[in-house]
Amino acid sequence: MTDLLVVEDDDQLRKALVLTLRSRGYVVHTAATGAAAIERVRSARLDVVVLDLGLPDMDGVRVIERVRETSGVPIVVLSARRDQSDKVTALDAGADDYLTKPFGIEELLARLRAAARRSGAPVDAGVVRTPDFEVDLGRKKVLSRTGAEIHLTPTEWGVLEVLVRAGGLLVPGTDLLREVWGPQYETQTNYLRVYLAQLRQKLEPDQSHPRYLITAPGLGYRFDPSGTGG
Question: What is the SS3 assignment for 182-229?
Answer without folding.
Answer: CHHHCCCHHHHHHHHHHHHHHHCCCCCCCCCEEEECCCEEEECCCCCC
